[in-house]
């Protein structure tokens, strides 16, 4: 599929870039997308939650009342889960939520996400650009020129560019990644996907293996 290349002023440069149909025009696999997003979110979890059980709660170990004759249930410890301040039954313990996925499945998920963006006309290709120094105002001007100032957008660079990255860092509605950092979650978590011309070749190389 052919997509026109825009400049940072939002104007057509007269050039077109050929996007691989095997990456940007496949039939999206929703289950692959689901699994990849699920893994991404699971990997963000710290898993440090912890509740004290009865053997970890501070308290006396003496028997709090006699066994028989009180007319109430037997009780041997104030640390019992049935009492206020006692331990918790089957409370959460530290654990690792991450799980593995097949590389081919993750590759399919990313191609499916890119194809969805292309199908919905939410994918734009812009010629490579940079700034002389980090400047948020310059980045905002680029967003306005592309009509993305009121949309959540993801810019994909061909290589790391510190000035462009730092210029976008203060903006909640926009983020910048390199083609090697691209994930299914970041693609779908933004309304518009902006590919710099130099990133296209890298994306296709990574996903065509």
From TrEMBL:
Residues making up the signal peptide according to the UniProt record: none
Domain of life: Bacteria
Matches recorded under InterPro entries: Ribosomal_uL4 (IPR002136), Ribosomal_uL4-like (IPR013005), Ribosomal_uL4_dom_sf (IPR023574)
Location of region: Disordered: 46-77
One Gene Ontology CC term in the entry: ribonucleoprotein complex
Gene3D superfamilies attached to this UniProt entry: 3.40.1370.10
GO biological process, one term: translation
Pfam entry (one): Ribosomal_L4
Family matches, as PANTHER family: 50S RIBOSOMAL PROTEIN L4 (PTHR10746), LARGE RIBOSOMAL SUBUNIT PROTEIN UL4M (PTHR10746:SF6)
Function statement: One of the primary rRNA binding proteins, this protein initially binds near the 5'-end of the 23S rRNA. It is important during the early stages of 50S assembly. It makes multiple contacts with different domains of the 23S rRNA in the assembled 50S subunit and ribosome. Forms part of the polypeptide exit tunnel.
Stated name of the protein: Large ribosomal subunit protein uL4
Organism taxonomic ancestry: Bacteria, Pseudomonadati, Bacteroidota, Flavobacteriia, Flavobacteriales
């Amino acid at each position: 599929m052919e997509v026109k290349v825009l400049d940072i002023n939002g104007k057509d440069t007269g050039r077109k870039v050929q996007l691989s149909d095997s990456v940007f025009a496949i039939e999206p696999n929703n289950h692959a997308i689901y699994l990849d997003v699920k893994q991404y979110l699971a990997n963000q979890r710290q898993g440090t939650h912890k509740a004290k059980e009865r053997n970890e709660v501070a308290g006396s170990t003496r028997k709090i009342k006699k066994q028989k004759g009180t007319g109430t249930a037997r009780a041997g410890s104030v640390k019992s889960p049935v009492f206020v301040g006692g331990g918790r039954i089957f409370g959460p313990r530290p654990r690792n939520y991450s799980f593995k996925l097949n590389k081919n499945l993750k590759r399919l998920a990313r191609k499916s996400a890119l194809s969805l963006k292309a199908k919905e006309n939410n994918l734009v290709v812009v010629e490579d650009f940079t700034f002389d120094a980090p400047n948020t105002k310059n980045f905002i001007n680029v967003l306005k020129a592309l009509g993305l100032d009121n949309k959540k957008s993801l810019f994909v660079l061909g290589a790391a560019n510190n000035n462009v990255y730092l210029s976008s860092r203060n903006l909640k509605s926009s983020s910048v990644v390199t083609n090697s950092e691209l994930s299914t979650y970041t693609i779908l978590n933004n309304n518009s996907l902006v590919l710099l011309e130099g990133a296209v070749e890298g994306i296709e190389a990574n996903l065509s293996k």
